[in-house]
Design goal:
145 residues, Jelly Rolls, mainly beta, 2 helices, 5-stranded antiparallel β-sheet
């Protein structure tokens, strides 16, 4: 009886933490780094992997460093950082474009390639690029404690 209860509890906890967005994370001694945009080339859209929005569950990290780069840098780009609690992001399925709030006041761009936040009240972050032009934009976020 007790064994069945613990198995059921473990399954419920695991399923309640499932995400409807794609996470590409690499853990390292300083924390973890997620790829939020990978050669993104679509204007006015949340960065995705071709079908599913990319996001990062950053709960437990005190500092977040967003780093943007472009493989071409011909027309410039602007990307904004969004955040929400995990419940809000997961409840909206794979479409993060209508949830959360914008965290930055200055956009990531060819002139502002890094933005750092400390102690932000977010569990999930993602990036929406307004203008990409002919650039292929890559954005990562590194969480550290």
């Amino acid at each position: 009886m007790k064994k069945g209860f613990f198995i059921l509890t473990a399954v419920l906890l695991a399923s309640s933490q499932a995400t409807a967005f794609n996470q590409t994370r690499v853990r390292h001694s300083g924390g973890a780094t997620w790829t939020l945009c990978s050669a993104e080339d679509t204007d006015d859209a949340v960065c995705d992997d071709g079908a599913i929005d990319r996001a990062a569950v950053v709960s437990g990290y005190d500092t977040l460093l967003f780093d943007a780069s472009s493989s071409t840098n011909t027309d410039g780009f602007t990307c904004d950082i969004y955040g929400a609690d995990h419940t809000v992001a997961a409840a909206d399925g794979a479409d993060l474009s209508a949830v959360g709030f914008q965290m930055n006041s200055v956009s990531l761009s060819t002139t502002t390639q890094a933005i750092s936040f400390s102690d932000m009240p977010v569990a999930v972050v993602w990036v929406k690029c307004g203008t990409i032009g002919n650039n292929n934009v890559t954005v990562t976020v590194t969480g550290s404690k």
